[in-house]
Design goal:
Distance between the termini: 159 Å
Largest sheet: none
Radius of gyration: 66 Å
Helix content: over 70%
Strand content: under 5%
């Protein structure tokens, strides 16, 4: 109810009371008016500033809370947008990771094949070297066997076809050649 409505109701009540009673004297009006003015003065100067300050501080708190909520909402929206962006990039990241893993696998495969070829070439070279060594050893053995057989055949031939005179002459030639060398 506003002040004017209250004043109108008070006037209507006063006029209704006046109809029943006689008009009050001026002294009867000054005391209630003085009390009202004192009461209004106390309310305006002491209670109203306190209420105004309380309402102003409450308004500031509400505005600060609204600002904080708006800031937090903006942060949350930024985080949501960030995650939406990340989700959109997940497929690209998965493809890039798969591609890098494939490339790494191909590099490993190439390296392993290269290492295997190098090892195979070394093994072939070692096998060739060993085979050459075995062939040399075998040739040497064959030569030794041929020399031994040739010697045996020559002895046999010398024993069968050489006479004692030939043996004496050979021994004499041998002793002469040793004497000339020494």
């Amino acid at each position: 109810m506003s002040f004017f409505e209250l004043f109108g109701v008070a006037q209507a009540w006063a006029s209704a009371a006046e109809a029943e009673h006689h008009a009050p004297s001026i002294h009867q009006i000054w005391f209630p008016l003085g009390n009202f003015l004192i009461f209004a003065f106390i309310i305006v100067h002491y209670a109203l500033p306190l209420v105004r300050n309380f309402l102003q501080s409450r308004r500031d708190e509400v505005l600060a809370t609204v600002r904080e909520a708006a800031a937090k909402r903006q942060q949350a929206e930024a985080i949501v947008q960030d995650y939406k962006g990340r989700l959109a990039r997940v497929e690209q990241e998965l493809q890039s990771i798969a591609a890098s893993l494939r490339a790494e696998g191909e590099r490993e495969k190439t390296k392993l094949l290269s290492d295997a070829q190098t090892l195979a070439a070394k093994i072939k070279e070692d096998a060739r070297f060993l085979a050459d060594q075995e062939v040399r050893v075998a040739r040497q053995k064959i030569r030794e066997e041929m020399a031994g057989q040739a010697e045996a055949s020559a002895r046999e031939l010398v024993q069968h076809h050489l006479s004692s005179a030939d043996q004496g002459r050979l021994v004499g030639d041998f002793i002469q050649s040793i004497g000339q060398v020494a």
